[in-house]
Amino acid sequence: MTETVKNTFLFAIVGGLIVLTGFLQSWNSALLILNMGLVSAIMAIGVNLQWGFAGLFNIGVMGFVALGGLAAVLVAMPPTTEAWAAGGTGIIISLLLGAATVIAAVLVRTWMHAGPVRSLAMLAVIVVGFFVYRAVLDPSVEAVEKVNPAATGYLGGLGLPVILSWPVGGLLAAGAAWIIGKIALGLRSDYLAIATLGIAEIIIAILKNEDWLSRGVKNVVGLPRPVPYEIDLQNDPSFVERAAGLGMDPVTASTLYVKLGYAVLFLIVLGVLLWMAEKALKSPWGRMMRAIRDNEVAAEAMGKDVTRRHLQVFVLGSAVCGLAGAMMTTMDGQLTPGTYQPLRFTFLVWVMVIVGGSGNNFGSVLGAMLIWFLWVQVEPIGIFLLELATSGMADGPLKTHLLDSAAHMRLLTMGVILILVLRFSPRGLIPER
Question: Which residues contact 285 (CB under 8 A, 6 or more apart)?
């Protein structure tokens, strides 16, 4: 079996599993798995750029995904005019003061000679700047969050088409990655992992606590969509008539229509990113990145700026994750910061990359589709199997315990799959060429 035939067969198996879900469960479930699998594939490509191309161990993926979700709010939601009038100007001024403080501290460090005087001057600039920044920010934030807190209590966005938030999410994540990379990319791989995890937690903590920015844990609901809301389709007489002509009720038809619309958009984005990633992998830049990954010392001896190249690929991979975060939030129609769990879902994306094949873009896509399918389906399958296994048992603590254990089937299955792949195909299902 040639490599192309084998890879096509693997993708056909995953596609067959999704189609089988449509026949055995519902096409709504199948399309939801497909759409989330496509978004997961984009995240996996972003991680593969960093790890598969350059060997950067980033476990702060959810922080960049969350920034993409924030972009959907900042771009697409209408501005809250009352909140802007109450304290919007003060917040903007305070943010500028904060940036000016950082710039002033950098200038002091640059212009003055090293020594205790420079350290004291930098400390004075930072302390004074911090108190001035908070003196302007705090009352402005309080005024904004008092404006109809049950429904708004935040500044809102720009009211632009939501699809524009997808590239903006990538840019926002790329900007954050550049700042993080300038600080952390000099660290060794294990320390870089710890630093990126901590930074992801900080980003998510900011989203949860700064209500003026995106309502915090109150969540932003009713985000605009690039496809219609189901309820709008159900209230459209022409759509209802077309659904009846197909023998479908309007509720089912509307959900299928929306999910199919997202599937087309996500496939286009994934196709473009996959094409670009393959071009990058086969280019001189891609060969240089893999040479740096395999032996940094030798690459530096050949005159390559390793830190600069690491920063490039770190920014690119994070931008792809930010794009995926904006797409996911758009599909959900809401921003819920509490759902971004760095350890849990970063682990899942890493499993996708490792199982699919680190360093292979098509492997990352395959791993993402397969692992997401299993993540969704393993728990109900586990419940069915445990109910079948315990059907002859008398009611009691043991039977209850076994049935309650179905909730742990997901993580158990991910661990077993990871072990099997590392044992029998350590380079993944579609290894790097």
Answer: none
